[in-house]
Amino acid sequence: MAKGLLKHQERQNALSLLGKDLTRRASSKCELCEASGVSLKIYEVAPVPAEPDIEHCLMTCDTCREQLTHFEKKPKHMQADHWRCLGKTVWGEVPAAQVMSVRILRQMSEKYPWAAEILEHVFLAPEIETWVEQTD
Ligand SMILES: [Zn+2]
């Protein structure tokens, strides 16, 4: 078996150990768009630490995860309307969710005034601001 694949497997196993605590933190809802009653999976917020860290994890629905893949590779394919939910998420208590919200909103704000408006009003703690800038 390829080494990369084995590593991926180990990562998934380690992440799955966090699943229970994450589900509790998320109240079984997507931590970005609050979708409930859907299947949730872990998304790791960059920069991804060497060992999986619950503070870098988000429980996310399939729709959000698909959008996040676009965010990383083809931002043009993102559906802006899906992300209007971030106007609420960005004020949440989970740092990783705040960080992703700001990153996505900054991307969106180049084209969408509503995103710029949310960013204008949001208050970010200095450590959140620092994390937002650290993308690798
Ligand atoms: Zn979602």
Structure explained in plain terms:
The chain is built from six helices and two strands, in the order H-E-E-H-H-H-H-H. The chain is mainly alpha-helical. It has one domain (3-133). Helix 4 packs across helix 5 (113-121) and helix 4 packs across helix 6 (126-133). The radius of gyration is 15 Å and the shape is globular. The mean pLDDT is 95. The structure holds zinc ion. The site of zinc ion has 8 residues, from strand 2 and helix 2.
Kindly summarize this structure in a few lines.
This protein has 136 residues and is mostly helical. The protein contains six helices and two strands, in the order αββααααα. The structure holds zinc ion.
